[in-house]
Amino acid sequence: MAKSKTTFVCQECGYESLKWIGKCPNCNVWNSMVEEIKKVSVSSGISSTSNSLPKSILNIKSSEYDRFDTGISELNRVLGSGIVKGSLTLISGAPGIGKSTLLLQTANNIAKKYGKVLYISGEESEEQIKMRGDRLEAISQELYIVSETNLEKIEEHIENIKPVFVIIDSIQTLYKQSITSAPGSVSQVRESSNDIMRIGKTKNISFFIVAHITKQGELAGPRVLEHMVDTVLSFEGERTEDFRILRTMKNRFGTTSEIGVFEMKENGLEEISNPSAVFLEETGFQKEGSVVIGIMEGTRPILVEIQALVSETKAVMPRRTVVGVDSSRLNLILAVLEKKLKVPFYNCDVYVNVVGGLDVDGTFGDLGLALSLISSIKSKEIGLENLLVVGELGLTGEVRPISFCDRLVNEAEKMGFKNVIIPFRNKEKIKSKGINIIGVSSLKEAVNKVF
Ligand code: TYD
Ligand code: MG
Fold first, then answer.
1. Distance from residue 96's CA to the centre of ligand 1 (Å)
2. What is the second-level CATH architecture of the domain 278-450?
3. From atom 2 of ligand 1, which residue's Cα is the shortest distance away?
4. Residue 423 annotated as binding?
5. Helix runs in 99-230, H state only
6. Where is ATP bound in this sequence (predicted)?
7. Domain ranges of the chain
8. What are the tens digits of pLDDT across the range 19-59?
9. CATH tag, 66-273
10. Model confidence over 307-338: pLDDT tens digits?
11. Which of 46, 169, 358, 395 has CA 20 to 30 A from 243's CA?
12. CA–CA dist 240, 17 (Å, integer)
């Protein structure tokens, strides 16, 4: 027997409460609690899918995951060489970023190579999707499209068509008739995902599910969604710029450190297999406050331009505005510059920007950022042409070695750079001929080399 009771569920984070409250105690969002009827079945509702007994790990046969090649190598890389058969992947991103475009292209590639693919859209009509398909040249015979939001009907379609790959665009539009709350509510999202997972795992179908993000940039719906699925991808980028970056937030079948870079073109998303080339497109001439730094995104070295602007201010609290760099890292570097080089920033506004919308985390860019700040405050260009700067900065002003330095130097050489400044302790191990390598062990030394 199932009996029902109502609870109040936070639509931002999934927190549940028996009483209505104005502010969610879990995520501190106001007015997010909505009453939902919750079915409590006496049996848990979960039935075992296999009759297996516990056995020693040595007696379990392992097999390499069977994967679909998506035909898009940037996507393959992010997933860990393709989509694992029977896996559940969530892809999130702001509206208009290109999720539907990427998935329609992927669906078409898989349909061409492996057979039937079902693209279920709750947001667009079949005609709209066809128009997009025409534009993307994603119109293969085995690609099936349906505009549907009712989960029971969707299950029937899957039963009839027997696809190898299903796309659900988006989870927030789905609803189960047996649940009274509105589509997109936490209960609906949770129950629909549960069903999708059951269908995927029992029929060995791979699913891609599109999920919207909230105003705060978090995945809408309960956190449980992230725990249930195998892989969580996030599609990011500025809508005004054409570059898009695909990241893995979680991956049961590979690392989470790889990124995929795309450009939104007139006929769909185009892969960028050499990101340094696009992020550096407009550099090549010397500018005040501009330095090229190198970072590692997964196994890939990427060179990006970092720009600093320092201007005097009379404000009591000078501004520190950063895009693409961690602000606490900037503060640390400013403190080192003030203390070790006696360059005063306390009466200056500081703006830092990473060109191209990439996020620089980690410490590889420390030295480059420090040099760009000095270049701007002194209004002096960097004195070395075609220069790459990498290195971590310590609190005493020392330059610490970084990992993968050889890869970054190779990338710089490939991109036609003439000079690199790297940590002294990395220099011994690098044997590049085509590029002038300058090893430095302190910030002072680096400053002397370039100004
Ligand atoms: P879309 O995939 O619909 O975004 P999402 O599903 O994440 O909301 O992409 C929408 C944007 O992409 C839209 O503003 C137009 C642009 N676009 C192109 O520039 N070229 C194309 O070929 C397509 C299909 C879309
Ligand atoms: Mg869409």
1. 6
2. 2-Layer Sandwich (3.30)
3. 98
4. no
5. 99-114, 126-136, 151-161, 186-203, 224-228
6. 93-100
7. 2-41, 66-273, 278-450
8. 999 998 988 888 888 888 766 554 444 555 566 788 888 88
9. 3.40.50.300
10. 999 999 999 999 999 999 999 999 999 999 99
11. 169
12. 40
